Amino acid sequence: MSFDLLLLLGIAVAVGFGGGKLFQKLHVPQVVGYIVVGVFLGSSVLKLFGPQLLDQLTDINAFALGLIGFMIGSELRLSIFRRLGKTIFSILLFEALGAFLLVALGVFALTGKLYLGLLFGALASATAPAATVQVLWEYKARGRLTSTLLAIVGLDDAMALILYGFAISISKTLFANAGLSVFSIVVKPVEEILLSLAVGAIMGLGLSSLTRRMRNKGETLILSLAAILLCCGLAKSWGLSLILSNMAMGITLANMAPFGGRRTYSVVQSFVPPVYVLFFVLVGARLQVGLLPQMGVLGLIYLVARSGGKMLGARLGAQISGAARVVKRYLGICLISQAGVAVGLAIDVHREFFQLGEAGAQVGIMVINIITATTFMLELIGPPCVRWAIVKAGEAGKPKL
């Protein structure tokens, strides 16, 4: 039986909202409820949202990720980087490398294949900003831990892209006994990151100029959403990072036009709740319960090594940089979630290895299955971990400044 698309989207938002409220009453972050509802509406149970339909709705996901990047950037003023810059970049480096190294070593020890270790290690470095940020907003978190976490989950996309750029090139070389390309290993990922930041900064300058002249909230909302849509479209067309480009736009706006930036943040924030509900329901609809048994020992090693690498790396980076006690104790467990970036890179692994013959295609399928299955687990575990951390740190429920 086929249903009208608008009817399905209405069901997704309405039932997702109800599921979120139910989980909130159980003291579980609403985002987990959205994802669980998505699992029931997806191909695992009711099959209202099949793979083909979900592929047609990818622009909704892109827009939601753009909103997330913009909202993160709008909260990152230069004063935060001046105060926490050393801490942010130290933790960012060590948490990403910690996950990369532990997963790479664990997979290599199990399989004896270095190229698989490098691939899974690079995918493990990515952290999902969407679920993490949703929990912070739901509980109105404010404080040293929250500020540091927002910066790290926003910039983590860049670290994942760099590590992936190295890993995919070296892995393909090891698999096919081909020659290494400096362009694909170094130049391409760095170019993508710099162009993403440049596009966002230029868009932010334009938006900051326009918002100074806007006095009406409706006009501000229209211009802001237009800028986010334009930034998302340019990023997709040019193969850039949606999150980084929109985050750069938000940072530029927040620091070039502080008053306009705060007003824009406020009006956009009033628009985003239904978009986020739909986004997370669609994330859940993509997760297939049937893939969980396919994780096997390799999937379990990936889960344990990735979580351990994130937490140990974050603790080490915080220790080296002299971070606040709450950051040292609780930030690592806030980095558990894994979603869009990792799944997207897994799909790219399949595309790259598919060109290397039947054996390469099998590698790609295995990577997608394991990353999808582990994402299912981590997206359910991650948000409650963030809630626990901000509550223990005393940063949950504080009023917005």
Plain-language structure description:
By secondary structure, the protein is mostly helical. It has a single domain, classed as Na+/H+ antiporter like fold (Up-down Bundle). Helix content is 80%, strand content 0%. The chain contains 16 helices and no strands. The longest helix has 35 residues, at 358-392. It is globular, with a radius of gyration of 20 Å. The N and C termini lie far apart (50 Å).
Key terms:
401 residues, mainly alpha, Na+/H+ antiporter like fold, 80% helix, globular
Based on the structure given, which CATH architecture is correct? Answer: Up-down Bundle
Q: How many structurally independent domains? A: 1
Judged by helices, strands and strand pairing, the structural class is mainly alpha
Ends: how far apart?
50 Å
Average residue-wise pLDDT: 83
| Estimated share of beta-strand residues | under 5%
Query: SSE string, helix = H, strand = E?
Result: HHHHHHHHHHHHHHHH
Strand count, sense and barrel status of the largest sheet are:
none
* Helix proportion: over 70%
**What is the alpha-carbon Rg in Å?**
20 Å
Uncertain ranges: none
